[in-house]
């Protein structure tokens, strides 16, 4: 029963004390059931069978390629990189359902807000199991038409060029100040990265974006003379207790492989 004789004796004595009746007779040949014990035996066997059935059901869930997986990701990555990956995975595993949450804020794995998370960060503070895939390159991006039209006429420090502003974001203000074009005019206040993507595609100016956008939208390119920021990396995080759950393991392995195939785009190569 998975314990010593002394442990078993203490457990039996505790149960008898709780019930207020003797369940076993102690003799030279060991233990035998009393009348009260005989009466309790069928219910005890039923309880054991129900418990084993529950254990088997739960263990079976962990071994099956079925069930729900909660995934959190930022909207830009999800809209332009994840959609085909999720479609391919869903075709391979029709019994696995993905619940996708899109936000630029972080869902906590430690607080059980999500099962799997795609994050672009320098360091991970969440209590989670993580795979660091590769650096994420952030660069200065604009349309080819804007570059051909505006860059030849620009001053040495960017006079005559336009940044699309993110609003009051000190980190981005510092990046502009340290860039090749610190004196380019900052126009507008647009806190949404996806709107920045649409604005640069329309030729409204230049902005900081993940450089993979140039592989998805060939009309965009990195602005000549600018540097890449690779302080962040792309991570896949999951709850430690889910590592051995088959559906989660299948999904994380597939997701990592799919993103690694796009490694060159994330690096800005």
Automatic annotation (TrEMBL):
Superkingdom as given in the UniProt entry: Bacteria
Q: Which GO MF terms does the UniProt record name?
A: DNA-binding transcription factor activity; sequence-specific DNA binding
Q: Which UniProt keywords apply?
A: DNA-binding, Transcription, Transcription regulation
Tell me if Chloroplast is a UniProt keyword of this record. Answer: no
For this protein, the record's InterPro entries field holds: LysR-type_TF_proteobact-type, LysR_HTH_N, LysR_subst-bd, WH-like_DNA-bd_sf, WH_DNA-bd_sf
Q: Which family does it belong to?
A: Belongs to the LysR transcriptional regulatory family.
Q: Which PANTHER family match?
A: HTH-TYPE TRANSCRIPTIONAL REGULATOR (PTHR30537), TRANSCRIPTIONAL REGULATORY PROTEIN (PTHR30537:SF3)
- Give the protein name, as stated in the record: Transcriptional regulator, LysR family
Which organism's genome codes for this protein?
A: Roseovarius tolerans
Q: What is the lineage of its organism?
A: Bacteria, Pseudomonadati, Pseudomonadota, Alphaproteobacteria, Rhodobacterales
